[in-house]
Amino acid sequence: MTAPQFAILDVLMTYDEDFDQSMIGQRLSLDSSTGSYLIKRLERDKLVATVVDPDNRRRKLITITEKGLTVVRGTMADARAAEDLILARLTPSEQTQLKRLLKRLVGIDADDEMTCDGRPAASSGESASPATTSIRQ
To answer: Where is the composition biased (Low complexity) (predicted)?
Structure first.
């Protein structure tokens, strides 16, 4: 699985809202052709499913499948280890500053932080997934 594919699955798993290809592209800064290609591959591998939006038949909603959830949950330990390796050269204060600046760059509020199963991280005591943690803390 590629990093952009993982990021799409992570977004779908983390946020409890309906996403179409355009919204995923905006969230992850993907152009439409790249987003379309990645989503088609994820759908081919049965990691996501697309359904026609009942409120707008020209729009397809993308949801993560059980298989997709299993894949993301199975890669969390590796993703956290990679994040730890990347951040290891920074002091805790620098890590906090980097995360705050990344969050500011992408316009995500601290209130958006969620756990891997879509619950607010602050109330559950869990942290968000590594693919989106850096930009949400």
So the answer is: 120-137
